[in-house]
UniProtKB/TrEMBL annotation, chains A, B:
It comes from Flavobacterium zhoui. Keywords: Calcium, Hydrolase, Magnesium, Metal-binding, Phenylalanine catabolism, Tyrosine catabolism. Its EC number is 3.7.1.2. Transmembrane segments: none annotated. This is fumarylacetoacetase. SUPFAM superfamilies: FAH (SSF56529), Fumarylacetoacetate hydrolase, FAH, N-terminal domain (SSF63433). The gene is fahA. Gene3D superfamilies: Fumarylacetoacetase, N-terminal domain (2.30.30.230), Fumarylacetoacetase-like, C-terminal domain (3.90.850.10). Residues 25-127 form the Fumarylacetoacetase N-terminal domain. Its cofactor is Mg(2+); Ca(2+).
Length: 427, 427
């Protein structure tokens, strides 16, 4: 089915500012709360949130097979479960309805009033109920940097890394959308040179620059999905900040991996940008040497050229961009991650989320965490207000942005922006 | 509130065979499917399943504040969310209704017909929708055995182990109830002496003898629960088989922990035995030396005397018990696990499940996995039919049972029994 929604010549009758992440060619999916306390599935064009539940009720999806309450829900799980054909039909229809040449909704002021909200008048929610959240570790540069610092500079990459898209399970219950503040975690750490641990606020709270993809129902238990088919099961992507407490992590992570160092919070951008919208930005990933085992081999372009940046904004000051990276640096593709994940028959459901792992690039200004940017705190970063950071301070806001751009169109993710509050005080 | 349901003098008008795991003093909670395709929350006395949805509809819970559809659901999450007071009221009422001295339901044949099913006529389901599943690693004997085999015999326990109830996140989507068969997973492994991995069926599929506890809503994000209050948030316990593919685990687990070696399947017993029912079997856990940090310190008895055993049953042969262990061997208590889990503010919700980790005892016949029982496959186990096992063979059934017994009463878990099928063949 042609993705007519991607037509770069199309313009919307809704105002879209230059350099907006959300031209009519994007049409991401999310969930928002209105001032009338209504939760609905929606999309966004420019700075307008569009209520898909209302669009459906007013019959604008006529001819597309949808259950009656497909969009009058507080998650996208059912819609995502309907599969790629439905996603395309709906996205194409939305593009058609908001095309400047189409008078149907454009000239119906009454319906427009019901359907369209200013972004400032809605509150974005988590777009999906995340049954299981997996986080990969797929940047060779990041794994190498961490290996150099934490283990052996001469053998930074562990023996399995070039053969396996290494991953682990994260915590679903603490995934929050952009805008929700996060508390500095308390935890157990081992002070340098000591043999007895202490308990207190983490002294090295870090961000991790990541993206994540959201799946549809992939398989039944036991079944694997070949790498060549994996793409059909990926609905779209978001930006992800994998908050990390480095001192807690260092003490707890052997032998079962990070736990409390990570599960206090994970922040994501609220609009899921579809793989269809990202299609024009397909590119090759890094050369894989040695050649992966057959179940992970794929031909063609399976990465995406997505510019990523991280800024730190101290309270009452302007943000300073501290990292510029790109999704295309990732060594393992999303298809390889998903094929590996199901290679043992692990069931993957609609709304499951899989993080990329920290996306570090080859240069020092493209590292995706403070751990790497300051090299374990040795080289503090100077912010615009003159202050320095080894890690994230209380009341700093971390802002991750991402967008694709070519000569014809810009498709963006908006941002995931979250403030680090001091430790929680129990009442 | 007194737990009158635990009165050991009480007898039921329903037949309960001697040595049944489910006398009227147990009253566990589960979810079952009837032959009429109705799913309901239920309990069990002897070999009878009791439909709590029907009991509620017929007004037998009069006087207890419950939402109208509390038990006409396919999970226990809402009931568990209602908290300890409701659990006790409902359990006490059930005990009262099925007491041989109470004619109310006993003498109402019409209602009995609607409410009571033979166990053989119902199909047990997962009792809860598990939002997040955590698995701990809290047996000192198990951690020591694994450390000796996989790492350094002289320093088997890692430095953090005596200070932290080490744990990690597992996969919710592949948790299945007793009776559901499991496929031998495919996966990547590194043959001994090689440097290039291969992909194929795991050659060392193992069980892990565990229990798990199920929580109610514990906290809001950011908040910690003190170890002294943790018990109030634990609803009950089940038996758990943490299926493990040792060859996959060995190759993949550094540095982020087990992933595909574990997430192909986790089997649990279907009846949640409440902490109230286990109350008479409270006992002290092992002495903790060094003293844990203050946030993990607790006084009194916080372990439970639960006999555990594992049997392997080859196809067309009788089962052989291969391990006898006990929950009381666990070093870290469930309260310590939960307090640690929330010490960084990690949110824990109703229906979340936390595994104990393999429960190995001090003697060789009390080890909780084939890895330990056969010491990495070096000392095969002989089964009753004359065959030998290093790990689990295709078409073997692994059966874990658990029960508490004192002079007055036996409170059991039933079993978690699951057959290992050959690798899945994709159609």
């Amino acid at each position: 089915m042609p993705i007519t929604a991607n037509d770069t010549n199309r313009k919307s009758w809704l105002e879209v500012l230059e350099n907006s992440d959300f031209p009519i060619q994007n049409i991401p999916f999310g969930v928002f709360l209105t001032k009338e306390n209504v939760v609905t599935v929606g999309t966004r064009i420019g700075n307008f949130a569009i209520d898909l539940g209302a669009l459906q009720q007013l019959n604008y999806f006529e001819g597309i097979e949808l259950t009656d309450d497909m969009f009058m829900q507080d998650t996208l799980n059912d819609f995502i479960s309907d599969g790629q054909k439905t996603w395309r039909l709906v996205r194409n229809r939305i593009a058609d309805l908001f095309d400047e040449k189409n008078p149907k909704l454009r000239d119906n002021i009454k319906d427009r009033d019901i359907i369209i909200f200013k972004m400032e008048d809605v509150e974005m929610q988590l777009p999906v109920l995340i049954g299981d959240y997996t986080d990969f570790y797929s940047s060779k540069e990041h794994a190498t940097n961490v290996g150099k610092m934490f283990r052996d500079p001469e053998n930074a990459l562990l023996p399995n890394w070039l053969h396996i898209p290494v991953g682990y399970h994260g915590r679903s219950s603490t995934i929050v959308p952009s805008g929700i503040p996060v508390h500095r975690p308390m935890g157990q750490t081992l002070p340098a040179g000591e043999t007895t641990p202490v308990f207190g606020p983490s002294r090295s709270v870090d961000f991790e620059l990541e993206t994540a993809f959201i799946t549809t129902d992939v398989n039944i238990m036991g079944e694997n999905i070949p790498v060549t088919e994996a793409e059909d099961y990926i609905f779209g992507m978001v930006l992800l900040n994998d908050w990390s407490a480095r001192d807690i992590q260092k003490w707890e992570y052997v032998p079962l991996g990070p736990f409390l160092a990570k599960n206090f919070a994970t922040s994501i951008s609220p609009w899921i940008v579809t793989m269809d919208a990202l299609e024009p930005f397909r590119t090759k990933g890094p050369k894989q040497e040695p050649t992966p085992l057959p179940y992970l081999q794929q031909k063609g372009k399976h990465s995406f050229d997505i510019n990523l940046e991280v800024a730190i904004q101290p309270e009452h000051a302007e943000p300073t961009v501290v990292s510029h990276s790109n999704f295309k640096y990732l060594y393992w593709s999303m298809c390889q991650q998903l094929a590996h994940h199901t290679s043992n028959g692990c069931r993957v459901n609609s709304g499951d989320m899989m993080g990329s792992g920290t996306i570090s690039g080859p240069t020092e200004d493209s590292f995706g965490s403070m751990l790497e940017l300051t090299w374990g705190g040795k080289n503090p970063i100077k912010l615009k207000d003159g202050s320095e950071r080894k890690f994230i301070n209380d009341n700093d806001t971390v802002i991750i942005k991402g967008f694709c751009q070519n000569g014809h169109v810009r498709i963006g993710f908006g941002e995931v922006s979250s403030k680090l509050l001091p430790p929680f005080v129990r009442k």
